[in-house]
Structure formats: C-alpha cells, structure tokens
C-alpha cells in the first residue's frame, strides 16, 4: 500500500515538473485514446433495425365473419315404440333405405305390452264407431236439408209467392208461412255443415287412435322415409317399459334413427357485431373438428334476429345449409363456419398490420424508399381480418413496412416488436436491415 502511494506521489511530482507544452501534448494523447475506446464500445453496442415488409399486390379481397356451432338434427328422425317384450324378427339393418310404413321389427309382447295394445285397439275401435255414427248423422242432416230446401222451393215458386213473370212477390213473402219455410231450410243446412265438421273431427280422432295403436303394436313401423342408423335391436333383445318421471306416463323407447335425404344443416352463433353484416344466401365455408382434412361449402338459410342471451352475452343463431351431403357428417358434430359477406376482385391489397391511423382519422403506411421508411397517407376500402384494400396512395409493387425487428449487438439479447404494436401480417415475408 505504501509502495502504491509512493508511486502516485512520484507520478504527480513528475507531471508538475513537466513543461507546459509537454503537459498539453500528453493530455491530448490520453483524451484521444479515451475517445477511441468509448467509440469502439459504443459501436459494439449499436442497435440494428430490421423491418418486416410486404409488397402491395392486386388480388381478390374476401371479407368474412366467423362463428362456431354444431350440426343440426333437422334431417334426422327417431323410430320409437311403446311395445314391450322380446324382439322376434328384424326386417332391416343399419344403412338400409326404407319408406314410411315399412316394417322394422316384430315383438313378442309381454303381459304389459299385451295390455297396452288391447287398450290402444279398444280406443281405435271406439274412434271408428264414433266416425261411423257421425257419418250416419251427416247423411240424416243432409236428407233433412234437402227436404226443407224442397219445401221452401215449392212454396217460393207457387203463385202466392211468385208473380206470373217469375219475379218474387215481395209482399206475400213477408208472411210468416214463407219465413218459416225459409228458416227451416237454413237451419237444416247449418246442421248439415256442422255435422260435416263433426265427421272431420271424428276422422282425425280415428287417425290418432290408429297411430297410437301402431306405437303399441307388436309390429314396429317406420314413421318416415330415409336411411336407418343407430339400430339398437337384435333378435332376442328385450324392450322394457320406460316411464316419464314428470308425470309417470309411459315413454316411447327409441330403437333407431332415420336420416332423410335433406342436406345437412349447421347452426352457428354470431356476435351482435357480426350479425348485421350477414344476409340470407351468403356463401360460407364450413370445417368440422372431427373432419380435419375436409372443407365444405354452404349458404345461409336462416338468421334468428331475436337472439339468445347467456351470462349477459347475446348471440344470434344462424343456420347454414351445406351444398352437398356426406355420410361423414353426423348430428351434433362441432363445426366452425366462415361466412363471406363481401368480395372485391382486382383490389390493391396490403396486410392489415401495414395500415395505421393518425390522430385526425386519416390512414397511413410506411413505404421503403431509397432504403429508408417514408410515411405515406392512403385511402382504405374493404378490410378483412388479415388484409386491407388500398384505394389511393400506393401503387402495385410498393414495399410497405408491416413490423420491425430491433436487434442489439451480441452483448445484448434480441428483442422483436412491431413498430405499430401489432402483428406483422406479411404476405411476402421480406426483412430489410438498416444500421443506425
């Protein structure tokens, strides 16, 4: 420690005894060396600016909104039965195409099943008797109507109530006899018309009774035409009674589905921001979570503008009908749709990330000119999630900046960011590096 202090004192004394000119020269040399060292250090830490760029290109701009949902069951029906017992024969299998009324299976009824079918058959017979009785009464009222009409007609055409020239005798037709005959005819006609309605109602009741009988019948019939799927029966299967817990009534047992030839329907939910943009007939592309390598097309056929509210969020169910049928598309499959709301051909397009707003509401982009970024005011048109149309301010082939990558020297870690605070959205993927 004493040696160090002695050395410092010696250097100080040496510097004091040095002539003035030599002192100035020494200070200049030391200062130059310090500046050189500082410059080298600063240069080693100089930042390098890299710009992510894209080229303004002409093409087709597609504007769309997206929504998610699932496959509707609108083209699927259910085969069910109230019969209980053991399946003795099957007439169909999965994949078979059937018509309404075709036999599906035969059931050997148990005691409960026999009781149900007997009650249903009794109801059917009662309904049929009611129809026959109503029809007989209709014939009676029709006969009475014609009888009363004939009496009124004869009275109206005799010389008392009709003039010699065939015109009505209005004076005599004001008499009670004429009015009684006319009222009897009109009353009989009204009874006949009312009885016709009774017959129609009785026919409807008979149809209902027959359908109820078919539900309990040992023969199970197809309710609609289509293709069988999900058949849960085989010969020897036991069908047991199921009960509705809410009212203790017997519920029908589902045994299969029938898929009709109607095109599949997709129901998706749109936000309150997107739904005003969508119109009936808009084209859409649909993807399914379960069918990752396939994309389907369709069009909007229904928009529920009343909407539904869940947890304070309003959505609007929108139905899309597919253009083609596919056996791979099953009811309740998860789906996502992109609905095309607008398109423009031959539009000058840049990535969304290239366009920014100024405080006065005008839009601008940064264009690379002579190796340096230059701000250019532009007028924009349509815009999608990824691309924006430029109406004026740019030309095809102009290089626009979509983001920047600021990379420090090797002594610092790299940091990447957009000059606009957004993503790059780059169409060409170019990068330009400028040292500064």
What can you see in these coordinates?
- The protein has 436 residues and is an alpha+beta fold.
- Helices cover 30% and strands 38% of the residues.
- The chain folds into four domains: 2-44; 49-57 and 347-435, conserved putative lor/sdh protein from methanococcus maripaludis s2 fold (Beta Barrel); 65-74 and 260-343, Efflux pump adaptor protein, beta barrel domain (Elongation Factor Tu (Ef-tu), domain 3, Beta Barrel), CATH 2.40.30; 81-258, Helix Hairpins, CATH 1.10.287.
- It is built from four helices and 25 strands.
- The strands form five sheets. It has a six-stranded antiparallel β-barrel.
- α3 (111-157) packs antiparallel against α4 (176-216).
- The protein is elongated.
- The model is unreliable at 408-428 (pLDDT under 50).
Write the layout of secondary structure elements.
Blueprint: H1 2-17, H2 20-44, E1 48-55, E2 57-71, E3 76-81, E4 85-90, E5 97-98, E6 103-109, H3 111-157, H4 176-216, E7 219-221, E8 226-229, E9 238-239, E10 242-243, E11 250-251, E12 253-259, E13 265-271, E14 283-288, E15 291-303, E16 308-310, E17 313-322, E18 334-351, E19 356-357, E20 363-369, E21 372-383, E22 387-392, E23 399-407, E24 415-417, E25 430-435
Antiparallel strand pairs: 1-23, 1-25, 2-13, 2-18, 3-12, 4-6, 4-9, 5-8, 6-7, 8-12, 10-11, 13-17, 14-15, 14-18, 15-17, 16-17, 18-22, 19-20, 20-21, 21-22, 23-24
Helix pairs in contact: 3-4
Tags for this entry?
436 residues; 38% strand; single chain; 4 helices; alpha+beta; 4-stranded antiparallel beta sheet; conserved putative lor/sdh protein from methanococcus maripaludis s2 fold; 6-stranded antiparallel barrel; 25 strands; Elongation Factor Tu (Ef-tu), domain 3
